[in-house]
Amino acid sequence: MRTIRQEPAPAKVNLALHVTGQRADGYHLLDSLVVFCDAGDVVTLTPGPLSLRLTGPFAQGLEADPDNLCLRAARLAGREAAITLEKNLPVASGIGGGSADAAAVLRALDAHPAHPETLGADVPVCLAGVPCRMQGVGEIVTPLPALAPLHLVLVNPGMGLSTPEVFRALTRRDNPPLPDRLPDLGTPEALLSFLTDCRNDLEAPAIALLPVIADCLAALQDAGARLARMSGSGATCFGLFADPQDAARAAREIGATHPDWWVVATGLAPAPAKG
Ligand SMILES: C[C@](O)(CO)[C@H](O)COP(=O)(O)OP(=O)(O)OC[C@H]1O[C@@H](n2ccc(N)nc2=O)[C@H](O)[C@@H]1O
Ligand SMILES: Nc1ncnc2c1ncn2[C@@H]1O[C@H](COP(=O)(O)OP(=O)(O)OP(=O)(O)O)[C@@H](O)[C@H]1O
């Protein structure tokens, strides 16, 4: 690369996450609705040998070691760059931080490796960067038609959860998928009514491992969320609110009651620029 490239790495939210089976290699079959938020990490790439520098409020939760997904993404692409990762998202929190960072590095490099899912199950959907249905073990990604605007509050209790541990704690692995054909999700009422009938099958096992997740969900509900659910393998939970003002008010209220939690109000991210 010859120029400086800055790419947002938006937080991923699983509005619904149905675990429908398990493959012989242990990976789980998923059926999920995924969206991306304005809140996120930022990667900046400048010309130079491969390196990584960490900044931002959650930089201390990570090492700039060769396993960092930013460096693994650049190596998979066979490219060099001096990478700065502004880590604004809590680490190991169910909102795809590492996968979002890897996808942002690939976008900045304009690289299209054959198997991005080898970096992480969430990398293909993070590369799409638009609202999607995600199936298979994460490699089948279908962009959704028009989706109603969303006004979210994300809440993380400040404790990380290991994704494999949460999957291991599942008691049922053959839960029903989403309907084959999704209804029209273009109005807030239709989207909310559909999502109310959906689930995150990882929510119960995650709460069993980290009961404070139930407090995050209750705090979102008490602050007026129309729907409160956990994202991914947790521990981050999201609430859906009527408008941006209501989301901002709820975030202020929850943040004031729980100053040790990470709480942000956010809308949907714009689609990534085509490389
Ligand atoms: C649960 C989700 O957050 C839903 O979006 C993702 O599928 C997880 O994506 P990720 O963090 O990128 O996951 P990976 O780093 O590929 O996998 C971490 C671990 O999660 C488990 N895993 C992940 C994805 C999947 N479909 N089945 C699994 O069982 C496996 O134990 C795997 O070793
Ligand atoms: N750039 C990165 N950002 C975050 N975590 C990283 C990164 N690179 C490697 N990791 C490792 O990946 C693990 C999972 O972190 P990540 O934040 O991606 O999880 P997550 O938000 O639960 O992801 P998902 O929603 O995809 O399950 C961390 O424990 C961390 O050690």
Automatic annotation (TrEMBL):
Q: Does the keyword Transferase apply?
A: yes
UniProt pathway annotation: Isoprenoid biosynthesis; isopentenyl diphosphate biosynthesis via DXP pathway; isopentenyl diphosphate from 1-deoxy-D-xylulose 5-phosphate: step 3/6
Domain (GHMP kinase N-terminal): residue spans on this chain: 69-111
Q: Where does ATP bind?
A: 90-100
| Keyword line | ATP-binding, Isoprene biosynthesis, Kinase, Nucleotide-binding, Transferase
One of the protein's GO biological processes: isopentenyl diphosphate biosynthetic process, methylerythritol 4-phosphate pathway
The GHMP kinase C-terminal domain is annotated at 198-257
Enzyme Commission numbers on file? 2.7.1.148
Q: Which InterPro entries match?
A: GHMP_kinase_C_dom (IPR013750), GHMP_kinase_C_sf (IPR036554), GHMP_kinase_N_dom (IPR006204), IspE (IPR004424), Ribosomal_Su5_D2-typ_SF (IPR020568), Ribsml_uS5_D2-typ_fold_subgr (IPR014721)
Q: According to its UniProt record, which residues of this chain constitute the active site?
A: 12, 122
Q: Which reaction does it catalyse?
A: 4-CDP-2-C-methyl-D-erythritol + ATP = 4-CDP-2-C-methyl-D-erythritol 2-phosphate + ADP + H(+)
Give, as one word, the top-level EC class.
Answer: transferase
Q: Is Disulfide bond found in the keyword set?
A: no
Q: Which residues cross the membrane?
A: none
Q: Please provide an example of a Pfam family that matches this protein in its UniProt record.
A: GHMP_kinases_N
Q: Which GO terms describe its molecular function?
A: 4-(cytidine 5'-diphospho)-2-C-methyl-D-erythritol kinase activity; ATP binding
Family note: Belongs to the GHMP kinase family. IspE subfamily.
Q: Which NCBIfam families match?
A: ispE, PRK14608.1
Question: What job does the chain carry out?
Answer: Catalyzes the phosphorylation of the position 2 hydroxy group of 4-diphosphocytidyl-2C-methyl-D-erythritol.
**What is the protein name given in its UniProt record?**
4-diphosphocytidyl-2-C-methyl-D-erythritol kinase
Organism of derivation:
Paracoccus sulfuroxidans
- Which lineage is the organism of this entry classified under, starting from the top rank? Bacteria, Pseudomonadati, Pseudomonadota, Alphaproteobacteria, Rhodobacterales
